[in-house]
Specification:
- The structure holds 2 protein chains of 2 kinds.
- By secondary structure, chain A is an all-alpha fold.
- Chain A folds into 2 domains: 112 residues, no CATH class; 66 residues, Orthogonal Bundle (Endonuclease Iii, domain 2).
- Chain A starts with a helix and ends in a 22-residue tail after the last helix.
- Helix content of chain A is 63%, strand content 0%.
- Chain B is built from 5 helices and no strands.
- Chain B is an all-alpha fold.
- Classes of the chains: A mainly alpha, B mainly alpha.
- Chains A and B meet through α1, α2, α3, α5 and α8 of A and α1, α2, α3 and α5 of B.
Chain lengths: 186, 104
């Protein structure tokens, strides 16, 4: 107990690192309310890097490490779980990161197994085009697997349409690239 | 109903639109069109990509790219790790000291 209090007084290693990162942002006039939690997330990334380093892997070997340790069946699931353990990461960001990672790393990560993330633009466009009847995420993921070869690649197209044309209110249908196929025209 | 002529059944229409959306996605991931999707050259690139993912919302609002973060002097992964390890070592020394003098 005494040791715990003393360490807290001293400001333990994690606290000091997070402080140094938040200081860095403050020096650069970047002030965000969630900055501290994101800095803690960066610390978690450093821990992940260290964890891999201790086992003789580099951060770029991320998927290979999970493949070697958990086998083909479980590797992706375990990796996703580990990434979601990073503070402020969450499922959507972890899936998005893995899409970029699989494309850029050249690792044989089974990208086709990544499901559509919970994202409002994507959910809205999936419903409006007619892939699903409502915006329930499970139905959207199921439809994603049914209609797309690689749902997480199509996610970029869905997001682009949702962000730029298919607004919640007053969508710009006349400019939308998939307007002629949209359910509203059928 | 103001249907588009010659579009076929619902299933056929959905498969067609799925192909368009996937093609749009592939274009966005093409490194020649979107330089952000160039291949990783090092573990440091993966680190900055992970940090950028974590910062996705704030980055977008601030208009700061991972490359700019690097240029602005955001500590490199190596520097952060070194500092982390130094601090850990300092804490271990402190822990040993406290244990030696009998405080637990």
């Amino acid at each position: 107990m005494i040791l715990g209090s003393l360490l807290r007084e001293l400001g333990g290693p994690e606290l000091s690192l997070v402080d140094s990162i938040t200081d860095w942002f403050a020096w650069n006039d970047i002030k965000m309310p969630r900055i501290r939690r994101i800095a803690e997330g960066i610390l978690d990334i450093v821990k992940l890097q260290k964890e891999l380093g201790d086992k003789g892997y580099e951060l770029k070997d991320l998927y290979r490490y999970y493949l070697d340790n958990f086998g083909e069946e479980k590797a992706l699931e375990k990796l996703l779980e580990r990434l979601m353990g990073i503070r402020e990461m969450g499922e959507k960001k972890a899936i998005t990161f893995l899409r970029g990672y699989s494309v850029r790393s050249g690792e044989k990560l089974p990208i086709e197994k990544l499901s559509l993330p919970r994202e409002r633009h994507v959910q809205r466009v999936m419903k409006r085009i007619g892939f699903v009847d409502d915006e329930d995420i499970e139905k959207i993921r199921e439809a994603g697997c049914k209609y797309f070869k690689v749902p997480i690649i199509a996610d970029l197209g869905l997001w682009f349409v949702g962000k730029n044309y298919c607004y919640e209110d007053k969508p710009k249908c006349e400019e939308c690239p998939v307007e002629e196929y949209c359910a509203k025209n059928i | 109903m103001y249907g588009v002529q010659g579009m076929g059944g619902l299933e056929e229409r959905l498969i067609r639109v799925a192909k368009i959306l996937e093609a749009m996605g592939r274009v966005a991931l093409n490194p020649e069109i979107n330089p952000y999707y160039r291949r990783y050259e090092s573990s440091e690139d993966v680190f900055y990509h992970l940090v950028a993912t974590l910062w996705a919302g704030p980055f977008e609002r601030l208009g700061v790219s991972p490359e700019e973060l690097k240029l602005k002097g955001f500590p490199t992964p190596e520097k952060i790790r070194k500092r982390y390890e130094e601090k850990m070592e300092a804490t271990n020394d402190f822990r040993e000291f406290v244990e030696r003098v009998g405080g637990t």
